[in-house]
Specification:
By secondary structure, the chain is of the alpha+beta class. The chain has helices at 14-22, 26-30, 119-146; strands spanning 3-10, 37-43, 51-58, 61-73, 77-84, 89-98, 104-113, 151-156. Strand 5 and strand 6 form a beta hairpin.
Length: 157
């Protein structure tokens, strides 16, 4: 199963980066500004059992995505998994690691599989990973901006 990891060191404490992700409007602030993804319904916060339903738009096509939070260990990490959506499997771990005095390493780790795997994973995983690099680069920049901080380094792919 393909795996993806992207991390940024942000010049803000891990507790502050965590607090941003806990905010009720955090997800909306992290979605692409082009309107290709929107929140349909949210139940709960980051705790296990809470859910988020999204609508994805690809040109004239629309697809629903239901994700459930499965783990939460404040302020270290939380995880969500797709229950229904475009992937065969999607597991996403959001990590918040102290990275020196007043700094946080924000780490997104995704394990995914496409419909019709394993052939589709072999063909499609490089494309999905390229999309994820752009998405997480943008999301990490929004996170830093929301915390009045800057990104000191990034890696992943």
């Amino acid at each position: 199963m393909p795996r993806f990891r992207f991390s940024s060191v942000i010049d803000a404490p891990a507790a502050e980066i965590w607090a941003f992700h806990e905010a009720p409007d955090a997800l909306e602030r992290l979605l692409p500004p082009d309107g290709s993804v929107r929140v349909i319904e949210r139940r709960g916060g980051l705790e296990p059992g809470s859910t988020v339903e999204l609508e994805l738009r690809f040109g004239p096509f629309r697809r629903r995505w239901l994700a459930r939070h499965t783990e939460c260990a404040p302020p270290a990490y939380f995880c969500d998994e797709q229950e229904r959506g475009p992937f065969r499997v999607w597991r996403h771990r959001h990590g918040f690691e102290p990275a020196g005095e007043g700094r946080c390493r924000l780490v997104d780790e995704v394990e995914f599989s496409l419909p019709l795997a394993p052939v589709s994973d072999w063909i499609g995983a490089p494309i999905v990973k390229q999309i994820l690099v752009g998405m997480f680069r943008w999301r990490h920049a929004r996170t830093a901006e929301a915390c009045g901080a800057r990104i000191l380094e990034q890696s992943g792919g």
